[in-house]
Write a structure and sequence with these properties.
Strand order of the largest sheet: 1-2
Strand content: under 5%
Oligomer: single chain
Bound molecules: zinc ion
Order of helices and strands: EEHHH
Shape: rod-shaped
């Protein structure tokens, strides 16, 4: 059975006591399963760029993308831009609504 380091997710040999990658101690029970999220940070850069463009062109789609970014738990940057995108999308919606009325 392949084991994985519980600290960094690196594959380790069966009898290893310490991870060769990060040096973490490999306790019984802690190894043997792959951690849910090895330390891979998502950037969401493309989502953020698409969100701004959508917010300006298609307010409703921008709003959806903004909310998507706002609810990501693994990126503070995505949350911050998600908030801006939601605000821009709402302004664009109000603006087009006001233009429709007057
Ligand atoms: Zn490790």
């Amino acid at each position: 059975m392949t084991k994985y380091c519980p600290a960094c997710g690196e594959e380790v040999v069966d009898h290893a006591r310490f991870c060769k990658n990060c040096g973490a101690g490999l306790e019984e029970g802690a190894v043997g399963r792959k951690p849910q999220m090895p330390e891979v940070k998502k950037s969401y850069t493309l989502h953020i760029i698409a969100g701004y463009i959508l917010a300006l062109l298609f307010a409703l789609l921008g709003l959806i993308m903004g909310i998507y970014l706002l609810t990501r738990r693994d990126s503070k940057k995505a949350n911050r831009h998600g908030l801006y995108i939601v605000i821009i999308a709402l302004i664009m919606m109000l603006w087009s609504f006001a233009r429709f009325i007057f």
